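User: Sequence recovery, please. Input:
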C-alpha cells in the first residue's frame, strides 16, 4: 500500500499590526457617587424618622405616604447609580 504524502505546514506569521489601540475617554462623573449615597441616606433617614416618631414627622399630613417618599429617594439613588462609570 502506498504511503500518503505529508504536507508541510507553513510557519505561523502574525498579521501586521496596522491598527493602534484607541483610548476610551471617560467623562469625569465625580458627582455621581456623592449624590447617589446622599439620596440613599436621605431616603433611609426619612423612613427611620417616620417610624421613630410614630408618623408625626417628617411630614405628618402625608401619613403612610412618607414611606413612599423615602423609597422614592432610594429609587432616585439607584437611578443616579446608572450614570456611574
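Assistant: Recovered sequence (85 residues):
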Amino acid at each position: 500500500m502506498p504511503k500518503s504524502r505529508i504536507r508541510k505546514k507553513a510557519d505561523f506569521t502574525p498579521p501586521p499590526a496596522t491598527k493602534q489601540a484607541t483610548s476610551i475617554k471617560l467623562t469625569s462623573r465625580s458627582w455621581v457617587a456623592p449624590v447617589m449615597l446622599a439620596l440613599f441616606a436621605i431616603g433611609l433617614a426619612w423612613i427611620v424618622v417616620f417610624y421613630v416618631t410614630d408618623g408625626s414627622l417628617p411630614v405628618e399630613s402625608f401619613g403612610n405616604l412618607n414611606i413612599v417618599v423615602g423609597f422614592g429617594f432610594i429609587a432616585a439613588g439607584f437611578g443616579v447609580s446608572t450614570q456611574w462609570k
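The mean pLDDT is 85.
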